[in-house]
Specification:
InterPro entries: Metallo-depent_PP-like (IPR029052), PhoD-like_MPP (IPR018946), PhoD-like_sf (IPR038607), PhoD_N (IPR032093), Phospholipid_Metab_Enz (IPR052900), TAT_signal (IPR006311). This protein has three domains: 3-36; 52-157, Sandwich (Immunoglobulin-like); 170-543, Purple Acid Phosphatase, chain A, domain 2, CATH 3.60.21. Helices cover 20% and strands 27% of the residues. The chain contains ten helices and 24 strands. It has helices at residues 3-18, 26-34, 42-46, 186-192, 236-247, 250-258, 285-301, 365-377, 413-425, 480-486, and strands at residues 64-70, 73-79, 97-104, 112-120, 127-132, 140-147, 150-151, 155-158, 169-175, 198-201, 261-263, 320-324, 328-332, 348-349, 382-386, 404-405, 431-435, 441-447, 457-463, 473-474, 490-505, 508-516, 526-535, 538-543. A hairpin with a 2-residue loop joins strand 21 (490-505) and strand 22.
Length: 544
C-alpha cells in the first residue's frame, strides 16, 4: 500500500470523528476529503460558466508567473482575484471562467507564437496552470492572459536548452524565507532587474503566523489589512488567503514576471518544523494530515507547477529533475515531507545515538534512490542540488561540547553520508548545493569528513539569506569568531537580507551574495557583500 493510499484512509477515519474540534470545522473536513481524491471532480464539469465580461474589477491583482522550464515547454500561471483579500477572490462561488493566454517572441506581442484558452476552476480557487509545448529550446518568450475586458501584466520566461546542447552559460538566483510580517520584499525588486535565466525558491514562500492590521514590521500607515490574516493558517481558506496577501506584494509580482521560478517548499508553507506526518504541536498525526492536505493544495494552486506535482490529499511529489543542456542538471529536493522526526526533541542538541541512527532519513528512501540514480545517469558538467536545510556540518562552538541543529542535515548524518557517498560513487565532480532556511548567507566547502579540515572537498554549498525573515539582520553576529573557528569549511557569512546569484560556466562558477541594508523600511539599495568562485574539477570556494 502506498503512502498516498494510507494517508487517504487516515483522512477518512479522522473526519468521521473530528466534527468541529480545535482548528478544523466540519466543512473544512469535508473539503479536505473532497480533494483527497482526483480533482476537478464531477462538480467541475457541472459548474456554471461565468461570463468573463461580467468581471468589473481587474482580476489579475496577483500578477503572473512561469516555472519549471523544459527544452520545448513553459508553464504559465495566474489567478483570477479581483478582491484577493476575500475568500474566493471576489468571484461568484462555483463559476468557472475561460481565460485566454498568449505567447510571443516580443514584449509587445507583434510576433506571436502560440495562443489558447484555459479554464480557471473554482475548485482550484480560479488559478490557471497552462503547459505550452512544442516550443523552440533555449528561447526567451513573453506571455500574458486575458479575462473579459482585462489583460494581465506581461511576463518573461524561457525554455531550457536542448538536451544535448553544448551551452556555456547559465545564471541563476536562489531565494528563500519571505516572512511578510518581518519586512518588505525589497530584495525582489532588485532581483527583477537582474539578468537571470531562472530563480530557485528554496522554501518558506509564506509563513503560517498571524499578520496584524499594519503588516507587522512593515508598520503600514496607508492601509489596514483585514482581520482574516491575523490568525495562524490551518484551513484551506486560510492558506489560500495567505498566498493572496503575499502574492499581492508588488516586488514579488515584479520578480515573478521577470523570471521563471523553480520552487520547493520547506516547513512554514505548512507548519514550523513539521517532519513527515509529525506536527510541531501536540495534535494527532491524522488531524495534522488534514492541515497538510490544505497547505499542499494551496501551495500547488498558487505556484507555477506542472501537472505531475498536483497533490493527492496530503501527498505531493515535489522532488523533480530539470536539465539545462550539457551544462547543468538540477535535482530539486523535498527534505520535509518524508523525513524522520527530529532527534532529541528538535533544536540545537549534542549529537548522539538517536541523531546518528543509520535508519534515520531526511529524504526518504525513494527520493534518496532517485537522487543517486539521477547522478549516475547525469552527463552535466554541474550537478546542482536545490534544497532546503543546511547540508554541511555547523558546530555552534569550537569545543568538544558543541551542539548541532537537529532540523538540518546535521540531525541526519547517516542520510547525509549516504547522499555524499552516492555522489562520489556516481563520479560527480562538480557538486553544488543551494540552500535556504537559516536567514543568513553562507559559503561552505562540503568535506568528505567535516571533522577533518584536510579531508577531500566534495563540492560547494551556497546558502542564501532570507528575503525578509528575521527583519533587518546584522552582518556579523556576536558569535562569529566561534562559528568560523568551529567550522573551518565556512568561507563566508553575512546575516543581512537579500539573495544570491550564481553564474555557471564551462570553467568555473561564480556566486555573488547580494544584500539590502534594511527591510523594515521600503526602497533600500542592493549591494554585493562578497563574491566567490569555484573551479570546474577543483571544488572549493575562493574569493573572486
Amino acid at each position: 500500500m502506498t503512502a498516498t493510499q494510507t494517508h487517504a484512509d487516515e483522512l477518512r477515519a479522522v473526519a468521521r470523528h473530528l466534527g468541529r474540534r480545535r482548528f478544523l470545522t466540519a466543512t473544512g473536513a469535508a473539503a479536505a476529503l473532497a480533494f483527497a481524491v482526483n480533482l476537478p471532480a464531477a462538480g467541475t464539469a457541472a459548474a456554471a460558466e461565468l461570463d468573463a465580461r461580467r468581471i468589473t474589477d481587474d482580476p489579475f491583482t496577483l500578477g503572473v508567473a512561469s516555472g519549471d522550464p523544459l527544452p520545448g515547454s513553459v508553464l504559465l500561471w495566474t489567478r483570477l482575484a479581483p478582491r484577493p483579500y476575500e475568500t474566493g477572490g471576489g468571484l461568484p462561488a462555483g463559476g468557472r471562467v475561460t481565460v485566454q493566454w498568449e505567447l510571443a517572441h516580443d514584449e509587445r506581442f507583434r510576433r506571436g507564437v502560440r495562443r489558447g484558452t484555459a479554464l480557471a476552476h473554482p475548485e482550484f480557487d480560479h488559478t490557471v496552470h497552462v503547459e505550452v509545448d512544442h516550443l523552440a529550446p533555449g528561447r526567451v518568450y513573453f506571455y500574458r492572459f486575458r479575462a473579459g475586458a482585462w489583460t494581465s501584466p506581461v511576463g518573461r520566461t524561457l525554455t531550457a536548452p536542448a538536451p544535448g546542447a553544448d551551452n556555456t552559460r547559465l545564471k541563476l538566483a536562489a531565494v528563500s524565507c519571505q516572512a511578510y510580517h518581518d519586512g518588505y520584499f525589497t530584495a525582489y525588486r532588485h532581483l527583477a532587474d537582474e539578468d537571470l535565466d531562472v530563480v530557485f525558491h528554496l522554501g518558506d514562500y509564506l509563513y503560517e503566523y498571524a499578520v496584524n492590521a499594519v503588516g507587522g514590521a512593515r508598520a503600514y500607515t496607508d492601509r489596514v489589512l483585514p482581520g482574516v490574516f491575523d490568525r495562524e493558517t490551518t484551513t484551506l481558506d486560510d492558506y489560500r488567503l495567505r498566498y493572496a496577501l503575499y502574492k499581492s506584494d508588488p516586488d514579488l509580482i515584479a520578480a515573478h514576471a521577470a523570471h521563471p521560478f523553480v520552487v520547493t517548499w520547506d516547513d512554514h508553507e505548512t507548519e514550523n518544523n513539521y517532519a513527515g506526518d509529525t506536527p510541531e504541536n501536540d495534535v494527532p498525526p491524522e488531524e495534522f494530515l488534514i492541515r497538510r492536505a490544505a497547505a499542499y493544495r494551496a501551495y500547488w494552486e498558487n505556484q507555477p507547477l506542472r501537472r505531475p506535482q498536483r497533490p493527492r490529499g496530503p501527498d505531493m511529489r515535489l522532488y523533480r529533475r530539470l536539465r539545462f543542456g550539457r551544462l547543468a542538471q538540477f535535482d530539486v529536493l523535498d527534505t520535509r515531507q518524508y523525513r524522520s522526526d527530529q532527534a532529541y526533541g528538535d533544536g540545537w542538541q549534542v549529537p548522539g545515538p538517536e541523531s546518528e541512527d543509520p535508519a534515520r532519513t531526511l529524504t526518504g528512501a525513494a527520493q534518496e534512490r532517485w537522487l543517486i540514480d539521477g547522478w549516475r545517469d547525469s552527463r552535466a558538467l554541474w550537478n546542482v542540488l536545490p534544497q532546503q536545510v543546511v547540508l554541511s556540518e555547523r558546530r555552534n562552538v569550537p569545543t568538544s561540547a558543541f551542539k548541532l541543529s537537529m532540523d538540518s542535515w546535521d540531525g541526519y548524518p547517516a542520510s547525509r553520508q549516504r547522499v555524499l557517498a552516492g555522489a562520489q560513487a556516481a563520479g560527480v565532480e562538480n557538486l553544488m548545493v543551494l540552500t535556504g532556511d537559516v536567514h543568513v548567507a553562507y559559503g561552505l566547502d562540503i568535506k568528505a569528513d567535516f571533522r577533518d579540515p584536510g579531508s577531500r572537498t566534495l563540492g560547494t554549498e551556497i546558502v542564501t539569506t532570507s528575503i525578509s525573515s528575521g527583519k533587518n539582520g546584522t552582518q556579523r553576529p556576536s558569535n562569529h569568531a566561534d562559528l568560523t573557528r568551529a567550522n573551518p569549511h565556512l568561507k563566508f557569512y553575512d546575516g543581512r537580507r537579500g539573495y544570491v546569484t550564481v553564474a555557471l560556466g564551462r570553467d568555473s562558477a561564480r556566486a555573488d551574495f547580494r544584500t539590502v541594508s534594511a527591510v523594515t523600511t521600503p526602497g533600500a539599495p542592493v549591494a554585493t557583500a562578497a563574491s566567490f568562485v569555484t573551479e570546474a574539477g577543483d571544488p572549493g570556494l575562493t574569493p573572486a
